[in-house]
TrEMBL record:
SUPFAM superfamilies: PLP-dependent transferases (SSF53383). This is phosphoserine transaminase. Keywords: Amino-acid biosynthesis, Aminotransferase, Cytoplasm, Pyridoxal phosphate, Pyridoxine biosynthesis, Serine biosynthesis, Transferase. It comes from the Bacteria. Its EC number is 2.6.1.52. PANTHER family: ALANINE--GLYOXYLATE AMINOTRANSFERASE, AMINOTRANSFERASE CLASS V. Belongs to the class-V pyridoxal-phosphate-dependent aminotransferase family. SerC subfamily. The keyword Coiled coil does not apply. Pathway: Amino-acid biosynthesis; L-serine biosynthesis; L-serine from 3-phospho-D-glycerate: step 2/3. GO terms for biological process: glycine biosynthetic process, by transamination of glyoxylate; L-serine biosynthetic process; pyridoxine biosynthetic process. The lineage of its organism: Bacteria, Bacillati, Actinomycetota, Acidimicrobiia, Acidimicrobiales. It comes from Iamia majanohamensis. It catalyses: O-phospho-L-serine + 2-oxoglutarate = 3-phosphooxypyruvate + L-glutamate; 4-(phosphooxy)-L-threonine + 2-oxoglutarate = (R)-3-hydroxy-2-oxo-4-phosphooxybutanoate + L-glutamate. Residues 147-335 form the Aminotransferase class V domain. The keyword Transit peptide does not apply.
Length: 379
């Protein structure tokens, strides 16, 4: 296939108002950036252990609790390093011995490898499915932690978090919600650690993790932290809990990331909460999947409609249309980051449908893809 980007100009009346469709870092609303600029002189460059920043962290923790309608006793923790670091933190501070993993994409598989390589943990078990589908969640004897992904960013598959029937008493449900949190509905009571980084639906930047933790998860974190199990201080969930209760992080965070996440979370809450955000994503998803189902040159990668993500859409193109060229032409016209996940290796486009992205722009994106495909075929 050609590596030269064809000189195709998309008519201005077809282009979206905002061409950012990246699955992370995601589009940040201009209003949030303007708010940060307006407060920068008194906020950026100040101590994260002083009231100005602590109040911002408090706003973020409270906004997350409100958005997720957290039950009594749940606490919002945060720390540096993003979800990748949090996998390590969970292996040190939230899994007693054996975890069970649903593996159905790149990121769910990575967490399973983290626990498998941890010398202080027993061998994890996995239930696997091919990319584009998802395995069922079933109880496994001896598992004290069930690990699943709410939305698999690499494949565009979403599953509803739940507790496995018949699980051992005290087993925790750990949900990686990095591309789902703030965009997909869920019942927090069905989770014990619902964790994410804010560079997707929370329309901020990476490098920070947040986790909504149940009383059972808090008890386990405190118990393990008090034991003789060693953990690096930066990955010690006991230390993260202690600092979060003070509305701060153990080490210096990116202040702009916290601020932008607050702007997004409070915007969502002011407009109706998680139902508002999920509704925006659902409208965009409906537009994409109806287009792909009807188009001759496109089809949804996820064949089961019940598993199709409403925050990340993966769309296969027919063999005679090079998805890499389509994405390159879109990029040359200001429509960014529509390439498929690099390790999936499919002739595919991938679009973020996060709450900050307007459904009208998603509709325009589909028209632009149609235009580019027609131009490529007529060349």
């Amino acid at each position: 296939m050609s590596t030269t980007t064809p000189e195709i100009r998309i008519p201005a009346d077809l282009l979206p108002a905002d061409g950012r469709f990246c699955c992370g870092p995601s589009k940040v609303r201009p209003e949030a950036v303007a708010a940060l600029a307006a407060e920068a002189d008194e906020y950026l460059g100040t101590s994260h252990r002083k009231p100005t920043v602590q109040f911002m962290v408090s706003r973020l923790r409270n906004a997350v609790a409100e958005m997720f309608a957290l039950p009594d006793g749940y606490e919002v923790l945060l720390g540096n390093g993003g979800t990748t670091a949090f996998w390590d933190a969970l292996s040190f501070g939230a899994i007693d011995d054996r975890s069970h993993h649903l593996v159905f994409g790149e990121f769910s598989g990575k967490f399973a490898e983290v626990t498998r390589s941890a010398p202080h943990l027993g061998e994890p078990s996995t239930a696997k499915a091919e990319p584009g589908s998802a395995p069922a969640l079933a109880a496994v004897a001896g598992a004290d932690a069930y690990c699943l992904t709410h939305n698999e960013t690499s494949t565009g598959v979403a599953v509803t978090p739940s507790r496995p029937e018949g699980a051992d008493e005290g087993a925790l449900v750990l949900v990686d919600a990095t591309s789902a949190a703030g965009g997909l509905r869920f019942d927090a009571a069905d989770t014990d650690v619902y964790y994410f980084a804010p560079q997707k639906c929370f329309a901020s930047d990476g490098g920070l993790w947040l986790a909504a933790c149940s009383p059972a998860a808090i008890e386990r974190i405190e118990r393990i932290a008090a034991s003789d199990r060693w953990a690096p201080a930066s990955l010690d969930l006991g230390i993260a809990l202690e600092n979060s209760r003070k509305d701060q992080t153990y080490n210096t965070p990116a202040l702009a990331t916290i601020f932008l996440a607050v702007q997004q979370a409070e915007w969502v809450n002011q407009n109706g909460g998680l139902g508002f955000a999920a509704g925006r994503c659902a409208e965009s998803a409906r537009t994409v999947y109806e287009w792909a189902d009807a188009a001759e040159h496109a089809t949804p990668f996820v064949t089961d409609p019940d598993l199709r993500s409403q925050v990340v859409a993966t769309i296969d193109l027919v063999d005679d249309v090079d998805a890499t060229l389509v994405a390159a032409v879109l990029r040359a016209n200001g429509i960014l980051d529509t390439e498929s996940y690099r390790k999936l290796g499919r002739n595919q486009l991938r679009f973020a449908l996060f709450p900050a992205i307007d459904a009208a722009d998603v509709a325009a994106l589909t028209q632009c893809v149609d235009h580019v495909v027609a131009e490529l075929r007529s060349a």
